[in-house]
Amino acid sequence: MTTITHPPAPAGTSPDVMRRTSLAAGILYLLTFVSIPTLAIFQPVRERAGFILGAGSDSGVLWGAFSEVVVALAGIGTAVVLYPVAKRVSETAALGFVTARVLEGALIISGVVSVLSVLTLRNDVAGTPGADEASLLTAGHTLAATYEWTFLLSQSLMPAFNALFLGFVMYRSGLVPRILPLLGLIGAPLLLAADSAIFFGVFDRTGPIALAALPIAVWEFSLGVYLTVKGFRPAAVAALASARSPR
């Protein structure tokens, strides 16, 4: 009598492991939305010249900076958690997603440093006798501009690349309903076009950028909710477990 044996599923593709992975990724994705109020919170730093001279409160800015650090770490966390799954679909896309997330996180923290530097100047320099107010205002404008550009390159530009890499993985594997990654794959070129127009001065960041970013925001939020509540689709998990690792 001949016994047919089937090779074991690759490590990390069992239903329990995949559910823990999807839950962790979903929660981290939802955490990346905690900084939504940041633009309003940072408005005094970005638009009020007198902020660096002592006008206004520090507490809101500190909480905004803290929330952006959380976003940076949570974003990197999504890539780290999903990498073992994504690489079974496409190693290139998986590495691209990790790289884009790490770069996004680094740029976000760079922007936070510029905002915290404004607080340091207003608390340690602005109130001292003989402080040069004109120089402080120039420094404040410079640091505010640094934040504006790092925001454009991090939380506006990088999500488009994230959507292209992870959207490809999720669409190809069917781990989530394909309508979700399709939103990201459609929204990515729209956001890239809008960011490029801002970069070259075609229009201001307060213009159509919000509409261009909407499909990516819906994609990321819906992915976070789906992974947290339902997890990866069982049929896709089974297919992934039986498939050979891509080269």
TrEMBL record:
Give the residue spans that cross the bilayer.
23-42, 62-86, 98-119, 149-170, 182-203, 209-229
Keyword field contains Iron = no
Q: Is Transmembrane one of the keywords UniProt gives this record?
A: yes
Q: Which Pfam families match?
A: DUF4386
**What keywords is this UniProt entry annotated with?**
Membrane, Transmembrane, Transmembrane helix
What's the name of the protein?
Answer: DUF4386 domain-containing protein
Q: Which organism is it from?
A: Blastococcus jejuensis
